[in-house]
Amino acid sequence: MEKDKKIALLIDCDNASYQAIDGVFNELAKYGATNIRRAYGNWKARNLKGWEEQLHPYAIQPIQQFAYTQGKNATDAAMMIDAMDLLYTQQLDAFALMTSDSDFTPLAMRLLTNGLKVYGFGEKKTPPPFVNACSQFIYTENLIQPPETDEKTNGPTLDLKKSRNELRSDTALVKLLRNATEQTVDEDGWANLGRVGQYISNNASFSPINYGYKKMSDLIIASGLFQVEMRRNNSVMYIKDNRK
User: From residue 72, how far is each of 33, 77, 95, 197 by CA, in Å?
Assistant: First the structure.
């Protein structure tokens, strides 16, 4: 049995929403065990009250950072220093950086250089340089569960899933999926979805969650861009470009 990969989660509490923390841990559980969990910020500040309430339930270690100088972000420096210390003192397989701050772009690139995966979690306002520097980046808005609505109130329900038309009109997404399929296609004209997903993860910061789908297979089916065939007792999905 393959052992769980070891992941270090570093949270920039000044630039991350505590409401998404449950979704972040659920997502990281797909890739391994989050052995190191640290949250950085000035815990004397009122704006971290929401984060303070998440520390014990999720066994997150708070790292205190005082604002020594007006306008200077001590949290960024502390996270970067800790990340480098962990890189060389712990046998980790991946880092998860929860922040919407593009100042962490050099850190993500440095960790990638050492062969580690970097999972980024931030809000949709996160600048593209940091998003693109991560092995995979997920917008935290897609990880926050909407409050349950009593059916009697007939309240609105939130559906984050992109429709077929919305997926097809996203030219960057369509190009990414079609190119990955073309690059991994077998001699029979079909591509193993697992290989397609691996090709994408090696070349782009992509997650189906950003389109409202938990799994790549769900996104593929919803897009209607590919023929789908299940093989090996319906355990493996193969896809073929509808244009072929």
Answer: 33, 10, 25, 40
Tokens found for residue 167: 């997926």
* In the chain, % of residues over pLDDT 70: 90
Domains in the chain, please, with CATH? 5-143 (3.40.50.1010), 164-241 (3.30.420.610)
pTM score, whole prediction: 0.79
What is the Cα gyration radius of the chain?
Answer: 20
Segment 82-91, tens digit of pLDDT: 999 999 999 9
